[in-house]
Design goal:
Blueprint lengths: L2 H18 L6 H19 L8 H22 L1
Helix pairs in contact: 1-3, 2-3
Length: about 80
Amino acid sequence: MLKDKARQKVVNESLRASSLYSPFKSYHEGIAIIREEYLELEKEVFRSYGEQDLIKIANEATHLGAMAIRFLEDLC
């Protein structure tokens, strides 16, 4: 995936999430959501060889990046 396209995908996901959900209310809430997204990415990455789905991995990585942006925007 091209770097600019990947970055834009993360930004778009962050904007989409911001339009659907209220801002993070605390550092604890923010880190919990980031952790949840990380664990979902980890689950996709650690699937058995041949069961990995690059599209799912990319989507979970996008979600993780988007939540990191929201953490910065909402709490920092």
